[in-house]
Amino acid sequence: MNENLVDYALLGGSGLRVSPLCLGTMTFGTEWGWGSPAQTARAILDRYLDAGGNFVDTADGYTNGTSESLLGGFLKGRRDRVVLATKFTFNAFPGDPNAGGNGRKNIMRAVEASLKRLQTDYVDLYWLHAWDTVTPVEEVMSSLDALVRAGKVRYIGLSDTPAWYLARAQTLAEWRGWEKVCALQLEYSLVERSIEREHMPAARRLGMGVCPWSPLAGGFLSGKYTRGRHGVKGVGRIATVQGSGHPAFGTFSDADWKVLEVLREVSRKLGRSMTQVALNWTARRPGVASTLIGATKPEQLDEDLAALDFELPPQYAQRLEEAGRPEAVFPYSFFKPEMQKMVSGGTTVRSSA
After folding, report:
1. In CATH, what number is assigned to the domain containing residue 163?
2. Could you report the per-residue pLDDT of 267-297, keeping only the tens digit for each?
3. Active site residue: 8, 48, 62, 122, which one?
4. Is there a domain that residue 1 lies in?
């Protein structure tokens, strides 16, 4: 039993208890050219659960549905002790516009297909996987509320949506008495911190726990890649899929490589792996409820689970924070101390929230 893994937190404004590290299962299955075969995937899940972890995340499209199917078999006899999350949005049948997106027809189709593959009659947390840009948010939220009322879903979350969208969704839920969003799943790491501008403050004010995905930037922050003329060099997921156009595996900037060097130095001084330092930093950021981790073999999982076994000394946490701090873009560049003095008449006013 890992003491840090059983330091459970409530997920946003809900009563759902989750581990600080969530096991992501996009690696369960080999259909995408990387990942774990069934036997290895089962060993990874068993090790996570034996360590006290209780939060497992998948999606209907991960490894073409294999991830959900494997989990359904693996969780027989222990389903109720797991907080099981899955997602919908991406198209299941090319050529059929209603087999994807966030309209009611697809949501209802997707949840039934996921329940069948997962061999369960309910999902603990149902994520909207991505904003589809067109479906009215009223339709999305009323459909998700209906699933909760039907007992097929316990809680709902949003992944990869604009901040204005999640704010409108939550406001509608509060106004109409619908099930509220309790969590946000967004990309967040030392080299991807855009959500600090709007999503993080919105989450804190609106009762949503943030669950970062790709806290290692697809493996970039593990230190196993070097800089090549046309991208990254090394063996791993980034090298395999670079150039695919997938936004999660894009190119890395000069600033990102500089952050990597700071991480490397801090890791060396602490005697911890770069993976552990990067995970530790992300998992303990304000507003973060549970951070997604992934592994293709049990040894990788062991390294990830040890990421919370230490405290980052304040001076090193500060160095990492400064290295990748997002640029203050408009309108936030407008809210400087000088402007605040103009607003407050030269006095000091602080929020109690």
Report:
1. 3.20.20.100
2. 999 999 999 999 999 999 999 999 999 999 9
3. 62
4. no
